[in-house]
Give the backbone structure.
Amino acid sequence: NHMPSSASVPFAGHSRAVGIQRLQLSTTLPFRKRCWQAVAQAKIRNQAECLRLLGRAGADRIEALADEVASGDTGNVESRAAREYFRYLFGPSFARGEEDGVNSALNYGYAVIRAAVARALAASGFILTQGIHHCSELNPFNLADDFMEPLRPVADLLAASFSPPPEALEKEHRERLAAVLGCEVGVDGEAQSILRGTELMAGSFGSACKAGDPKLLKLPGLLPLQEHAYE
C-alpha cells in the first residue's frame, strides 16, 4: 500500500547520550505532565490555525479548548478537540480510521513526520520508548508520538489542500506528502523547515529536562504551506 514502513534510528547518535538519558529518566511526573500540557496546547492551537488557513469554521472554538488543557491533560481535552476539529476540517460525516483516500493521506503524512521526530530525538540522545505521555509497552516510539503531535496539523493542512479530495492515495499525493518535511513551521519566532524544527524541538526538550522547566520547550507553530528556502 506504499505506506512508510521503517525508520533508521541510530543507537549512538549523541556523544553524551548516557547523560541525556539519565536526565530523561530522572524527570519527575509533574514535569512530564506539564510538558504534555504544553504539547497538547500547541497541537490544539495549530489545529485552530489550520482551520483558519483553510477558511473553515470552528477555529475560535478549537483554539479556546487549548486554554482548558490542564497539567497532564487530565480532562482529555486534546482528544475532544481532535474529534471536533476533524468534523470542521473534513465535514460532519468524516471519521478517522476509515479506509479512504483522505485517511490514507493523513496516515502517510503522519508516518513521515513521526519518523523525522524519532530521528531527531534519537540523535539528541533520548530513549524513544520513554514518553512524557504515551507509555505503551508495545510502542518503541512513545516519545516520538508525544512530540509529533504539534506537527500533525501540517499533514492535515496538506491533505485538506488536495483538490479534489483523494478517493485513493495516488503517486502524486504520496510525493507531496513525502515532501512535508520541507514545509515551514514557526519555531521560537523564526520560520524553519519541519526537519530543522524537529531538531530544535528535541534540543529544547534536553534543555527543559536539565532545568526542570517545561517553558524551555520550543514547539512548532503552523504557518501557511510553503517550502522553506535556505539562505
Notes: Residues 17-226 form a domain with the Four Helix Bundle (Hemerythrin (Met), subunit A) fold (CATH 1.20.120.920). Strands lie at 183-187, 190-193, 221-227. DSSP finds nine helices and three strands in the chain. The chain has one domain: 17-226.
